[in-house]
Structures are given as structure tokens and as C-alpha cells.
Design brief:
This protein is about 25% helix and about 25% strand. The protein is of the alpha+beta class. The strands form 4 sheets. The chain has a 5-stranded mixed β-sheet. Strand 4 and strand 5 form a beta hairpin. It starts with 5 loop residues before the first strand and ends in a 28-residue tail after the last strand.
Length: about 260
């Protein structure tokens, strides 16, 4: 692992709208503040700007809530139309209690409200959905950066998830390109010669979480350049995307 990792927020990107070129906005912001994007850097991009650019914003006025959505919204502060969108974005409801919904998205993520979120979306009548394919979104940015600058970078699309058994939320990787999202230590010896049997570290999640210290939630910094992690040239055989982080049902002791 590197002795030092630097995180540099990219300010000045501004409000992103449907059809905007996310990679172009990032490159422009980096050039404006004189932050070079170099070989082996990791770009962490918040999910919200990706969703906005890809048209994954829904107006509640266009949604007709179902009977079940209206029923589930009783006793909560959530608009039934918002609940209806959550149900549409879910392939399985994991848990519901006191108006809270934990669901499994069509991607396989287990999170609150299927990732449907009204924060950092203009107006009071719209919500943002997760990208349809966050790994593909990350790969598109990676390819665009390579075409523009001739360098290989890794790209992470991040979002904020809550965690079972622990208070507070943290950022995780929902899309990954150009790097293995996990560092596998199985079979290696530790400092005392003990062979590690199960240690696999979700490095993409760790990078996403670190980037949130720079992006914040209300600071208008939707992208971060991470220098020093040292992904090197991407091994496409190991660049499995964020879906590799989803534990399969047969190995999930809590399902």
C-alpha cells in the first residue's frame, strides 16, 4: 500500500442537467483549478451528478401512487408518490418499520429506499434514482478521460448507504471501472507468518468513503481526484465492477 494518498476535490462543476457530459465537466473543472489528472489516479464521482446527467430524475407530479404505496406511506413523512417510486426501483423489500424501507434494488444493492433520494435535487417535486448501470457509467467516464488525456484512470461512482448495527452512513462504491474493487489477501502471510484465509478488503468502498470527506453533502464538490493509491495499468481481467462487491445469496448469513 502507498505511504501517502491525496484527495483533491473538484469544485466549480455546477448544477448538472440531463444530457450533460460528466467526463467533460470533470476535465474542465480539473483544468480550471490546475489539478492534473494523471496515470493511475482514481476519480470518485458522486452518484447524484451521474443520475442527473443520465436523466434519472423523476417528477412526483408524473407519478400515480398505487394503493400499497399509499398504505405504506401512512404514518410517515414520505409522499405516497415517492414511496411508489421506491417500490418500482425495488426487486425485494428487505424490511419495513415505522415508515422506513430497506430494499434490494434491481442492481442487487441493499439500501434505504432503493437509493431513491430527494436531496441535492432542485425543486421540491423531484427525486433522483440510481443509475441503471453504475459500472457502465464509470466505464464511460474512464474511456472519455483516456480519449481526452491518453491516461488510464480508475473511476468510482459513489453513493451514501446506511449500515446494519452501526449508526451513521458512509459512502460506498456502486460503480467501478479500471480497478479491482477488492484487494485479496487470501493465501498471503501476515507480519507474524500467519496465512490469511478469508481477508478480502473492499478497497473501492474505502476510497469512496475517503472521498466523502472532501465532497461533503452540501459543499457542491461532486468529484474527487485521488492520487497515490497506485492502481497502475488496469487489468481488465480483474476489473470486475462494483457488482463483485455484492455478496451472493448463498453466502449471505443474514438473508
Amino acid at each position: 500500500m502507498p505511504a501517502e494518498v491525496r484527495l483533491i476535490g473538484l469544485a466549480g462543476i455546477g448544477e448538472v442537467e440531463e444530457g450533460d457530459d460528466v467526463a467533460g465537466l470533470i476535465l474542465e473543472a480539473a483544468a480550471e483549478q490546475k489539478t492534473p489528472i494523471e496515470e493511475g489516479d482514481v476519480l470518485v464521482i458522486t452518484q447524484k451528478i451521474v443520475s442527473k446527467a443520465e436523466g434519472r430524475v423523476v417528477r412526483l407530479r408524473d407519478v400515480q401512487p398505487s394503493t400499497i404505496a399509499a398504505s405504506l406511506s401512512q404514518g410517515s413523512n414520505r409522499d405516497p408518490r415517492h414511496t411508489e417510486i421506491i417500490l418500482r426501483e425495488s426487486r425485494r423489500i428487505v424490511r419495513m418499520e415505522r415508515g422506513n424501507i430497506i430494499s434490494e434494488t434491481h442492481h442487487g444493492f441493499n439500501c434505504a429506499n432503493a437509493g431513491v433520494d430527494a436531496s441535492n435535487v432542485p425543486g421540491d417535486d423531484s427525486v433522483a434514482l440510481l443509475p441503471v448501470d453504475p459500472d457502465a457509467s464509470a466505464e464511460a467516464v474512464r474511456q472519455a478521460v483516456r480519449a481526452a488525456l491518453g491516461v488510464n484512470v480508475a473511476v468510482i461512482v459513489s453513493d451514501t448507504f446506511g449500515r446494519p448495527w452501526r449508526e451513521g452512513a458512509t459512502n460506498v462504491a456502486i460503480g467501478v471501472a479500471g480497478m479491482d474493487p477488492m484487494a485479496d489477501y487470501v493465501g498471503r502471510e501476515d507480519c507474524y507468518g500467519q496465512v490469511m484465509r478469508t481477508t478480502v478488503i473492499a478497497v473501492a468502498d474505502e476510497l469512496a468513503a475517503a472521498a466523502e470527506l472532501v465532497t461533503g453533502k452540501v459543499d457542491g464538490v461532486p468529484a474527487v481526484v485521488i492520487k497515490g493509491y497506485g492502481t497502475g495499468a488496469p487489468d481488465l481481467g480483474r476489473a470486475r465492477g462494483a457488482r463483485a462487491l455484492i455478496r451472493p445469496p448463498e453466502r449471505d448469513m443474514f438473508r
